[in-house]
Structures are given as C-alpha cells and as structure tokens.
Amino acid sequence: MTDPGAVSDRSNRLLRALMRLPVDMPPVWLMRQAGRYLPEYRALRAAAGSFLAMCQTPELACEVTLQPVRRFPLDAAILLSDILTVPDAMGLGLTFVEGEGPRFERPIRDRHDVARLHVPDPFAELRYVPDTVRRVRRELGGLCPLIGFSGSPWTLATYMVEGQGSDDFRRVKGLLFSDPAALTSLLAILSDAVTAYLNAQIEAGAQAVMIFDTWGGTLAAHHFLRYSRDPMAAVVEGLNRRRDGVPVPVVVFTKGGGAWLPALAETGCDALGIDWMTALASAREATGGRVALQGNLDPMALYAPPERLKAEVEAVLADFGGGAGHVFNLGHGVRPDVDPEQVGLCIDTVHAVSRRPLP
Ligand code: CP3
Fold this sequence. Notes:
Layout (H helix, E strand, L loop, with lengths): L12 H6 L20 H10 L2 H6 L1 H14 L5 E2 L6 H8 L1 E4 L3 E4 L6 H5 L12 H13 L5 E6 L1 H10 L7 H9 L1 H25 L3 E6 L7 H18 L3 E2 L2 E2 L2 E5 L6 H5 L5 E3 L6 H8 L4 E6 L8 H15 L5 E5 L9 H16 L4
Parallel strand pairs: 1-4, 4-5, 5-8, 8-9, 9-10, 10-11
Antiparallel strand pairs: 2-3, 6-7
Helix pairs in contact: 4-7, 7-10, 8-9, 8-10, 9-10, 10-11, 14-15
The structure holds coproporphyrinogen III (CP3).
C-alpha cells in the first residue's frame, strides 16, 4: 500500500495539513517571513522608496513575496502586502512613519465618520493586490502555495479609530462603550470589505487565506464574541471556499485568543493560528480535532543559542504530538533584527525531527 504521506511535498503539504490530511512532515511557513530581517528585502525596499510603494507595485511585491521561498525550503509563500491597505482604500490616508509604525491622516472618531465609509472595490481601489496575486502564482509555477490575507474587522477597526497603533485602545473602546451601534456598523462595513477583498484574492489565485485578528485578545471576555468573533464568522461565511473545484482553506488567528478557541472554531474556519502563550496540546484538546492548528514557536526563540532554538522547535512539535493537522509557524511575526541563519535553522530542525525514524 502506498503511504499517503509519501506523496506530499512542498507543492501541497500546507494545503493538505490545513485540510487535516496526512503529510510526510508538518509544513512550515513563518508570519512576516518576508521582511526587514532579510538583506534582499532591505535592498529592494530602499530601491522602491517606501514600504507602501513596494506593496502597490505588483512587480516589486511579487519579488519580495518570493524572496523567502527562494532562500529557505518553506512550504508556502505569503503575499507581501499589509492589513491596512483596506482602510487606506476606504479613504483614511495611510502612511508609515519611520520607527513609529502606521498612521492614518483621517481616522474614524464617531458615527458621522462611519456613515461616510464605503466598501472598496478590490478590483478597482485595491487592484494592485489581485494583480500581485496573479503574478506570484505565475512566478511560483506550483513550487508551493500562495497564502492571501486580511486583517479582521475588529483589528482593522482598532487602527481606524485610534489612527495608529495603541497600548490601551482607549479610543476604539471608548466608541464601544459610548456608541456601540456606531462600532457595530463600522464592523459590519469592514466585514463586507474584508469578505470582498479575500474573495478577490481567491479569484486571482490565493490558495489559502488567513484572517489576522492581532488585537482580538485585548477585548474583555464578554465583548470578544460580539466585536471580534462574530464579524470574523460573517467573513468566513461569505468566502468562496473552492476555486476550480479545489478547497481554499481559511485560517483564523486571534493573538491572545487562547481562552476562546472553541468559539473561534465555530466561525467555520479550517484552521486556527495559535500564539505561544497557549500550548498546542491544550489547543488540540479544546478544539477536539475539528480544525487544524498553526503555530506556535515563541518568536523570541529565534534569538536563542542554536542548540536551544532547536530544542524549542522540537518542543513545539512534541507539544502538538504528531498526526494530521499541524502547520509549523511562529506564534507571531519574525522580528526585523533576527539573524536569517536562525530562521534557516528553525526550518531545518522541523525537517530533521520529522525525518527521524520512530523509536
Ligand atoms: O507575513 C508576511 O510576510 C506577509 C506580509 C505582512 C505584512 N504585514 C508586511 C509588513 C502581513 C501578513 C502583515 C500583517 C499586519 N500588518 C498585521 C497583522 C499581523 C501582525 O503582525 O500582528 C498588522 C497589525 C499590520 C500593521 C503593520 N504593518 C504594522 C503595525 C507595521 C509596522 C511595524 C513594523 O514592523 O514596522 C507594519 C509594517 C509592515 N508590514 C512591514 C512589513 C514587511 C515592515 C515595513 C518596513 O518598514 O519595511
């Protein structure tokens, strides 16, 4: 009998694992695998002039998307873009201030601002995104799948209302307390915008999509379902889950969402991203094999001495405990000052451990 695992390779490991089918070894990709820690990224960004210019030029965005999959034996490429391109297309005026992160010139402060918002047409205002997706698919030629992504409605709302990153989310939570109906309509518009945006990526050729709910974990327990989970469930419900007869798996990642994994699985997604604060074994138990799990090495382990990094990677694999439905990843993104050698060692260790004969 042919071992079904023996047929998996770089071209299909990720999609098989996300669908909880057997694979020869867990697929590996890393959040922020394209970024400033790579000298080739820094060179291209300097030539492009800015990060946004790079995202908005399909030729450059494609090149940056491919950089990490050329350098490392990764099992997926992820589109070089940003979650904040959607609010930018809604007219908020995005800039990235050097050393300070994203800023919006025209943030959303009240119900009047919300009333003026429109759902952007992903093939018009965001056309550079499907254009990049098509180009990347062509250039990849089936080497590995391409992951598309969006921010979650709640996470996009935090940036839109705060106007920038925040430590305490006082403005967006202020809106939640003072005018919950306004926040609810903002989230409804964002659910429609995110659904259309992800469907456009799928139509253009994205083979899996991920929803980044980076700030869902900052909500009070009794607010999480209504303001973060439910809008994501509306998005998942509206997605085209097959393209040309092939399933397009959906990953939902709420950072700090460890307490809500069963509720997140109920969105109807295929997989959950798990941060490093939650053990994979307990995540697996909490979700009872209903979804695949993606994660969850502490991104700081990439600064550890090599032997220690290897041990931490092995601990993640052992924590999941083998079997179908694991995608190896970090619990959050690669930091800009990580040594690329350490990223290579991390990936090689996943492969080496998985190739080891069973005791
Ligand atoms: O993972 C990948 O390689 C794909 C590309 C990707 C980027 N941003 C590229 C990027 C993805 C999936 C994102 C998502 C994103 N962007 C999130 C959600 C995931 C997360 O990290 O929590 C958030 C919150 C953002 C918003 C954002 N974009 C911030 C806060 C910053 C500034 C912080 C920083 O690292 O400078 C960005 C900029 C950004 N997005 C860069 C990259 C490669 C760095 C731009 C540069 O200075 O070159």
